[in-house]
Amino acid sequence: MAVLTLNGFSKGEDGGGPSQCDGKFHSDYEPVVALSTGWYSGRSRCKKHVTMSANGRSAKAMVVDECDSTMGCDEDHDYQPPCPNNIVDASEAVWKYHLV
């Protein structure tokens, strides 16, 4: 089972550097996600949409980044530890406008 977490994809937010799929930052108003390393599958899911369900509602978001399950605790990863293998790191838009 996946664990949905909140992440900032804008410059200066907790997501760290630019998104790996397109080298850009993304607004909190865009429904985007970062997948843990295994699900990210070496960029094969970049720019593809995933559907999440919670609380009886569903949300569709575009994959733009990897939530690295093998590296962390450095500047590129905002000094956060590596992601567990079951993480879908979602933007505020996914939470605010679709799932709650």
Automatic annotation (TrEMBL):
KW Secreted (keyword) present: yes
Alphabetized InterPro entries for the sequence? Kiwellin-like (IPR039271), RlpA-like_sf (IPR036908)
SUPFAM superfamilies tied to this protein:
Barwin-like endoglucanases
Q: What is its main location?
A: secreted
Where is this gene product found?
Secreted
Domain of life assignment: Eukaryota
Q: Which residues form a coiled coil?
A: none
Q: Does the keyword Nucleotide-binding apply?
A: no
Gene Ontology cellular component terms for the protein in this record: extracellular region
Residue ranges for the region (Disordered) are 1-23
Q: Which Pfam families match?
A: KWL1
Sorted keywords for this record are: Secreted, Signal
Q: Which PANTHER family does UniProt cross-reference here?
A: RIPENING-RELATED PROTEIN 1 (PTHR33191:SF77), RIPENING-RELATED PROTEIN 2-RELATED (PTHR33191)
**Family of the protein in this entry:** Belongs to the kiwellin family.
Q: What is this protein called?
A: Ripening-related protein 1
